[in-house]
Design brief:
By secondary structure, the protein is of the alpha/beta class. Helices cover 33% and strands 12% of the residues. It has 7 helices and 7 strands; from the N terminus they run H-E-H-E-H-H-E-H-E-H-H-E-E-E. Helix 1 packs across helix 7 (180-194) and helix 4 (117-129) crosses helix 5. It is globular. The mean pLDDT is 94.
Amino acid sequence: IQNTGVSSMQAVGEAYKAIKSGEVDIAIAGGVQEYSLWTGLNLAAQQLYSRAIKVEDSCRPFDLRRQGTVLGEGSGLLILESDLSLERRRKKGFALIRSYAGSNNCHRLTSYPSSGSGLTKAMNRCWQLAGKPKIDIIISNGSGTRNADSSECAAIRACQLEQALTQSIKSFTGHTMAAAGAYNLIAGLLQQEHKFYTHTLHLKTPDPHCELNHLPLGGVHERLNFL
């Protein structure tokens, strides 16, 4: 699946749907991305790439002073398995996927509607399919670009999820593009396992358009259930 930063999350979602429908019992899903000079130059041409010199100024999701994103590289893969398959093998799953949903914002590939309309539809549908649980934490896209961050925050508020703790791991890893969704999911699961959730690096002064319940400096030590 080639869908820029959504690729690996969409791959996980499609694998989940294949298991739920009974098409397969086990699926391996995720994404891989190596650094691309062409992608970096393309983002720079669109003024989406950070030109900061200092590390602390480079990728600052949701911050008033954010300048753009920074590319990263890597891979993330997850093994998804049906409940019946786990029972047969007498194994226990690491976590449970409650639902998956997608949408199309009918906008441009590298910019997003200020209303966050497409993302709002996907998030609301996913929440409803999951049975409307209390969402404890949002592992956000948080790319550090002004347009994407503002659009995402608008969608979170439109879904009335602004009280959920919010973080962006791209402040640590950079934007891993095709691997980004899997990175977010794995980071959330590992934090859940260790009962520690980190703050968004370099976030000091939230943009007024990005006012959410951001994880505080130093992170949070507790068990959260729904990501």
